[in-house]
Request: fold
Amino acid sequence: MNFIELHYSIEYYFATTELHEKDCLEYFKRCTKKNEIRTIASKIVKVLKEKDVLRRFKALILLHTLSQLEESTIFSQIESFGNEKMDAEFLVQSTKLVYWEHIYDEILLTEESLRRKYEFLNGSFAINRGEVIPQQFRTPRFCEDFEKDVLYLFGIINDFVMQKIKSGAENSYLQKACELCIKDMVCLYELVLNLDNYKSLLNESILNTERASSCQKQLLFIKTEMKKKNEDKGQLNRIPQITEYKKSVTKFSSFIKKFPLASKGIKYDSSRLGDDETAGIVNILLLN
Reply:
């Protein structure tokens, strides 16, 4: 892309009103070259050090938006970010944007930490098509620790969204941040469901859906609350059902391509499926 255009777009995004910000964000999503991402990241870090709370909040929204791209590398271009400790007087003033900025900032710091720890995840907290979970991570113990980290992030995002709903705040920037957070929550819920299924297969045990059910319950509650307010439910229109993958031909065959089971001596016999993958529920786990 033209760097003059990129620099202009960055300045325009931080200076313009919300009417034109969507177009700017869509433009930044197309900036996928390393030097382009580096330029955007540098500006984000610089703005986060400014005194203008609105510009800082917009910087967080930009950072969050780019972090959700499938091949996102935005966090790798930022060594550190985060605002200084907020004065106590603002910690209870939910009508102030700076209050929400403080919580939002903590969410993105936690997300950055998770992404750095589990670098095999893409912007949707999933494993890309054609890739697999690394060999050293294919153990029940790892899955348990991994899931706890995922649930912690889900929890703090949920707290943020619920606070916004209960407060009745109408700020459009806060609304955009919540939309991005809800998108993350749906992706994290899917990851929890994947890890629950993976642990069940690795342990050769019954699927425990308690954690996935808890996440799903929260998402459905948020969807209901947003419906009451006639707000766009977006990602909440596609909350996945809780499924035991080994009982679904299509789900299982897709799942083991990213979460291999060979290390446990579990094989997948595709010949048992026949030509029709929708033939019904079959037993597709054959132990050595």
User: Anything to note?
Assistant: The CA atoms of residues 67 and 123 lie 6 Å apart. The two ends are 54 Å apart (CA to CA). The first strand starts at residue 266 and ends at 267.
